[in-house]
Amino acid sequence: MTDVPTRHLGSLAVSAQGLGCMGMSHGYGASDDAQSIATLHHALDLGVTLLDTADFYGAGHNEELIGRAVAGRRDQVVLATKFGFANRLGEPVRVRGDAAYVRQACEASLRRLGVDHIDLYYQHRVDPQVPIEETVGAMAELVQAGKVRHLGLSEAGAHTLRRAHAVHPITALQSEWSLWTRDLEAEIAPVCRELGIGLVPFSPLGRGFLTGRYSSVDELSETDMRRGQPRFADGNLERNLAIVAQLNELAEAKGVTTGQLALAWVQHRGDDVVPIPGTRRQRYLEENLAALAIELSAEELAAIEAAAPAEEIAGTRYDATSLTFVDN
Ligand SMILES: NC(=O)c1ccc[n+]([C@@H]2O[C@H](COP(=O)([O-])OP(=O)(O)OC[C@H]3O[C@@H](n4cnc5c(N)ncnc54)[C@H](OP(=O)(O)O)[C@@H]3O)[C@@H](O)[C@H]2O)c1
Q1: Which residue's CA is the nearest one to ligand 1's atom 47?
Q2: Residue 287 Cβ < 6 Å to ligand 1
């Protein structure tokens, strides 16, 4: 074990950086299960405790994979999973948050994970057809039944957070937060702080783009979902690459990689912030964890932010349909 520091999401203690497991089953092209399990084991060996999955990732494959990886090591792990997308990838989005669905989804996740409880159970997207009180009420019953320890929401708006938290304490909000997605800073993060809700930034590396690794979508496999995301589209990609070029220079001057610079910036958002960079590779995992030790001065933070101003980020973070399901 290394000395990965601990941070708290509400009352839940977790490693200061978690591991996003989505790409091991979903979204970013073909994966190799043996490689993914080796990366998961390496993460636990290095002191990562928070593993992030969802029933949606690979239509259950990701939870089964995590279940295999944590078998025999359950006590070392804070298992976070999500429910809410009732469609499969590629089908029209269908979000469900009715009480019967919450109960059914939890049973299915417990079975796939091979565990008797989930440490942090998130609603993946708020169901606009169902009052949040019903959804969180059903989630609270899972806590009372011992099947879930802590509750979370993903991409919920400020008003929903308040209503949800009035039903049962919400431990964490998992939403996109990175140098190129800062939407939650104005209204949502302050509400989380007022209520004591921890913040879990997803896609903190801008889906890999902020590592400086990509210069063309030709580098992505045919099945990679980033091909359909506006920021990777022709015209936008070139403009976003100009931003990454500036981040590359700042990283080089600091003696770190561009991905580490981007992660360190997220980690400097506050002690209640626990990013979950996603990777399938041990090498990237180690590089990302090393970013925990990077200190950025106020001048360095300002220079990083000046290199990536919101008005210069080209393209929305999701397509128009997916955007209707965030910040609800
Ligand atoms: N709640 C939600 O709606 C939601 C949405 C999206 C994601 N998430 C969660 O957040 C996690 C992280 O988000 P994400 O995976 O979308 O995006 P991300 O963490 O910003 O980036 C992941 C991508 O960056 C690459 N990468 C990681 N470390 C790298 C490094 N040091 N150098 C170069 N490339 C590196 C990965 O490559 P390899 O995979 O090839 O290693 C992968 O392609 C997911 O795994 C998932 O658990 C949640």
Answers
A1: 20
A2: yes
